Task: inverse folding
């Protein structure tokens, strides 16, 4: 299996690209304050999944999945700030809230599967 086959990875990549496409259109101040943080946290979701996937030991993979989950919830906070400051619409905000929930479920399921795989191979 390759990382690109994981749905959680695919969805986190799509979400980050969509966030980029929104933030890139903001004015300089908005990009420099909220935008950079939002893009970095969204990009970190898939990046941490990739790093964990490439690690040798399953415990390292799980640890990087936890980092990924942290980045996912950081992204949620930055999206809330963007919405509160009228940088994204209510429709965009609701769409990302739903997306974050879905990615979070997939991420938790992936973390659980790593532990199950470990138990069946010992």
Result:
């Amino acid at each position: 299996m390759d990382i690109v086959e994981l749905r959680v990875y695919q969805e986190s990549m799509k979400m980050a690209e969509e966030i980029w496409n929104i933030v890139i259109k903001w004015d300089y101040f908005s990009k420099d304050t909220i935008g950079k943080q939002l893009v970095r946290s969204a990009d970190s979701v898939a990046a941490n999944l990739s790093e964990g996937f490439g690690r040798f030991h399953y415990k390292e993979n799980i640890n990087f999945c936890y980092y990924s989950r942290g980045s996912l919830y950081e992204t949620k906070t930055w999206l809330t700030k963007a919405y509160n400051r009228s940088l994204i619409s209510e429709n965009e905000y609701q769409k990302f809230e739903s997306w974050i929930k879905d990615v979070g479920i997939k991420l938790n399921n992936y973390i659980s599967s790593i532990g199950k795989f470990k138990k069946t191979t010992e």
The chain has one domain: 3-121.
